[in-house]
UniProtKB/TrEMBL annotation:
Transmembrane segments: none annotated. This is PEP-utilizing family enzyme. It comes from Saccharothrix texasensis. Keywords: Kinase, Magnesium, Metal-binding, Transferase. Coiled coil: none annotated. Its cofactor is Mg(2+). InterPro entries: PEP-util_enz_mobile_dom, PEP-utilizing_PTS_enzyme, PEP_util_C, Phosphohistidine_dom_sf, Pyrv/PenolPyrv_kinase-like_dom, Pyrv_kinase-like_dom_sf. The keyword Kinase applies. The keyword rRNA processing does not apply. Belongs to the PEP-utilizing enzyme family. It comes from the Bacteria. Residues 31-77 form the PEP-utilising enzyme mobile domain. Residues 194-369 form the PEP-utilising enzyme C-terminal domain.
Length: 407
């Protein structure tokens, strides 16, 4: 009997067209297995990073955990919910066929096809990482990619990789908030130690939506929000949370003490922000001196229209969060597969917003990095006036490999 093949939708690709492993329904880490789960969430972090592939029945291409998989080259396939229970024993995820096969299956190692743009075409690459191992694997790419000037990490990923529960700590009072900040600082110092000369680390400040926070919080009741994507998170949450400034001061104090002259190799970015007023209020609340860089993560249409004002207010760098920006421009939930056809990262409205932001940054002399999924790098490079990009390690490695093989 020939192996049974179940068709699906590929959410995250992989350099290999076939990934084989034992189906893992437990939710517990099983290195090299294929995680089978209804949906990916932060509570599965340890399991995800140890999996060879993921098969799920919900989610979209640009969810936070899907982005984690993308950074590690872990393919994610979505199939009908009723098919999950039948995935037992050895299975093979076929990225080329967007399917999963039960039983023995011929394994192919052909690479996926990427656009014709090379690292040498780019002035600067900011690599999105989940922990220090991503820096090691990026700097181990051969031939070496000298265009990698910075690495970008979310504070919530630092928490997940180190077992920290931010809301539990922040709501337990100032001493616990300060201990949390120092712990984050220690993790960042360890990451900075992996940088090579000419590289720096940018941490995006804590941005926990209520639905994600509820899954990784033990002692705090998280208020339910009917629409967490548009709820109390990002800059508005940082301006609202009483003890975050105490944690941030402790973080900076720890980093300054332990990094010494390398302290300036660590920068910070404000998430989910709309305008100059929020930017200035947050700088003041965090007690950042004027000479301390603070960058902005642009992911709402309001922020696009505020790029010039961000630059005037002293933003040191602009990062274009294309995944959320696409969602909000097109009113298409990036995690809802039912509207996947409406979620278009090359839509004229999205391209207009990206172009407007890049041009505003160029006029102000402020660097603008545009996040691009692997399939979009070449398109953005051709249609936007920029050669500064953000991407994941696995996609950068593939670009470097394609460029090397074409020589």
């Amino acid at each position: 009997m020939s192996p049974r093949e179940i068709p699906g939708v590929l959410l995250v690709g992989s350099p290999s067209t076939s990934v084989r492993g034992i189906a893992n329904h437990t939710g517990r880490p099983l290195p090299g297995s294929v995680l089978v789960v209804e949906a990916l969430g932060p509570e599965l972090y340890d399991t995800i990073v140890r999996s060879a592939a993921v098969v799920c029945s919900g989610g979209g291409r640009t969810g936070h955990m899907e982005s984690l998989c993308r950074s590690r080259g872990i393919p994610v396939l979505r199939i009908p919910h009723a098919e999950l229970v039948g995935l037992v024993g050895e299975v093979t995820v076929r990225t080329d066929r967007e399917s999963v096969t039960l039983g023995e299956s011929e394994v192919s190692v052909n690479s996926v096809e990427y656009p014709t743009v090379t690292p040498d075409d780019l002035r600067s690459v900011c690599v999105v990482i989940a922990d220090a191992t991503d820096i090691q694997s990026t700097n181990a790419i051969q031939p070496r990619v000298d265009q990698v000037t910075s690495f970008f990490i979310r504070e919530e990923f630092v928490c997940l990789s180190s077992g920290l529960s931010p809301l539990d700590a922040l709501r337990a009072g100032i001493p616990e908030a300060e201990r949390y900040g120092a712990a984050i600082g220690a993790e960042l110092c360890a990451i900075v130690d992996q940088l090579v000369p000419g590289q720096r680390l940018v941490m995006r400040l804590l941005d926990l939506r209520s639905d994600d926070a509820a899954q990784i919080t033990n002692d705090v009741d998280v208020d339910h929000e009917s629409n967490p994507e548009l709820g109390l998170h990002g800059a508005r949450w940082l301006l609202h949370e009483p003890n975050y400034p105490h944690a941030f001061r402790a973080l900076r104090a720890h980093v300054r003490e332990h990094l010494g002259p390398d302290f300036d190799r660590l920068n910070f970015a404000v998430p989910f922000i709309n305008d100059q007023d929020e930017f200035l209020r947050l700088r003041e609340r965090l007690e950042l001196p004027d000479d301390v860089p603070l960058s902005v993560f642009v992911e709402t249409p309001a922020a696009v229209h505020s790029v010039t004002e961000f630059c005037e207010a002293g933003a040191s760098e602009i990062f274009m969060g294309t995944k959320d920006l696409t969602q909000f421009y097109l009113a298409a939930d990036r995690g809802n597969h039912r509207v996947a056809s409406s979620y278009q990262t090359r839509h004229p409205a999205v391209m207009s917003g990206l172009r407007q932001s890049v041009e505003a940054g160029r006029r102000a002399g402020v660097p603008v990095h545009v996040f691009a999924l692997g399939a979009d790098v070449g398109y953005y490079f051709k249609h936007l006036p920029t050669d500064r990009f953000m991407m994941c390690t696995a996609e950068l490695r593939q670009l470097a490999l394609e460029a090397h093989e074409s020589r």
